[in-house]
Amino acid sequence: MRPVVAAPDSVLSRAGDPVDPLDPEIVALAADLVATMRVAPGCVGLAAPQVGVSAQVFVVDVTGHPRARTCHGTVALCNAEVVEASRWQKGREGCMSVPDLTGDVKRAGHLVVRGTPPGTGEPITLTTDAFEARAFQHEIDHCAGLLFLDRVPGPHAIFARKVYL
Amino acid sequence: MRQTTQVNELAITVVGRDRPGIIADVSAALSRLGLNLTDSTMTLLRGHFAMTLICVGEVDESDVLGMLEPLTADGGLLATAHRVPPEPSGANTGAPYTLLVHGADRLGIVAAVTGVMAEIGGNVTDLTTRLSGTLYLLSAEIDLPSSADFDELLTKLDEVADRLGVEVSLRSGDADVL
Ligand SMILES: [Zn+2]
Questions:
Q1: Which pLDDT score, from 0 to 100, does residue B28 have?
Q2: For the domain that residue B105 is a member of, what is the CATH number?
Q3: CATH number of the domain bearing residue A50
Q4: DSSP string for residues in chain A
Q5: In angstroms, rounded to a whole number, what is the distance separating the alpha carbons of residues A81 and A25?
């Protein structure tokens, strides 16, 4: 587990470096990301910049989420990129690194992503939709130094996050 | 974020004839006083410039009005400034919803719709209304208490919508943390 950094930490606004998926440090980083994601309530994804590491590594797990359709379980990817994106849909997102705000962001509801799982040298291609697609796009954005705040369409699309008791 | 020391907050409004540069002038005046502009909102309401802001700093209302005097002297802009006690922010509880109403302009739309929300303890956190020709539009963000009966609320909203001849929709503004 690693501490999660919050905006305005500059690491969140820097494009992450491409990584060597076989580098043991990267494999360990991915494992830490999974562990950190697991203990954060409601967290379905985490990217390396969010733990202060400017690198193109992220993890996603939308298992059991009510808005998920396709679900690949726990996914970790290095150097991921969007290959295909369509069926854009608006949805309200929050982020562990922007704890007090949410925003309406358009994301592709159909997505093809290419990246390499840590510990392997083999790129894989994943096709997904709905909430998992949104999670992938959010984390790929983190790896590129983008927050959901960079994607909101206008001044009335940012909201105070509600605290549930 | 809660401050540990007592902060001096000022509520400031500036309303009047629009022109380019008002915000730049107002914020420059406030920064000359050492006032930190925290939360603010500005829009044009039927062509009128309207800005509301909360500032933090160790000055009095009269200092603010004095510094804004060059902007207000010709009567084009009206400014007010009041000290306000700090409020806890980010501590709202409840589930967020977006409310949209549109239809022919009728007296009492806002009162009727927000009245239904208030009855069940719903708190409006953001509201915009526009009259465009004869089309009236209301959009609002509302926190509903977890105790609220959602179906009953929809029934009441439908009643109001029928009575006023407007379309009303309420949808969840729940956010997913990614
Ligand atoms: Zn995030």
A1: 96
A2: 3.30.70.260
A3: 3.90.45.10
A4: --PPP-TT-GGGGSPPBP--TT-HHHHHHHHHHHHHHHHSTT--EEEGGGGT--BSEEEE--TT-TT-SS--SSEEEEEEEEEEEEEEEEEEEEETTEEEEEEEEEEEEEEEEEEE-TT-S--EEEEEEHHHHHHHHHHHHHHTT--GGGG--SGGGEEEPPPP-
A5: 21
Which residues on chain B place their C-beta less than 8 Å from a C-beta of chain A?
A: 89-96, 125-126, 128, 139, 141, 143, 146, 173-178
Examine residue A2 and state whether it is found in any structural domain, yes or no: no
User: In this model, does residue B3 exceed pLDDT 50?
Assistant: no
Task: Tell me the pairing of strands A75-95 and B176-177.
Answer: parallel
The answer to whether the Cβ–Cβ distance between B176 and A93 falls below 8 Å is: yes
Domain of residue B27: give its range: 8-83
Q: How far apart are CA A165 and CA B21, in angstroms?
A: 43
Number of H helices, E strands in chain B: 4, 9
Identify the domain boundary among B49, B83, B117.
B83
Could you give the percent of chain B with pLDDT greater than 70?
94
Question: Ligand 1 is a single-atom ion; what residues have CB below 5 A from it?
Answer: A 95; B 178
What is the bridge-based pairing of β-strands B9-17 and A158-160?
unpaired
Pick the residue of A162, A163, A164 with the most B CBs within 10 A to test the interface with B by mutation.
Answer: A162
| More reliable by pLDDT, B8 or B1 | B8
Catalytic: A139? yes
**Gap from B160 CA to chain A (nearest CA, Å):** 26
- How many whole angstroms from A108 Cα to the centroid of ligand 1? 17
Q: What is the pLDDT of residues B5-30, one digit of tens each?
A: 567 999 999 999 999 999 999 999 99
The answer to whether the beta carbons of residues A143 and A47 sit under 8 Å apart is: yes
What are phi and psi for residue A149, nearest 5 degrees?
-60, -30
Tokens, residue A117: 């799982």
Block residue for tokens 């922007």: A98
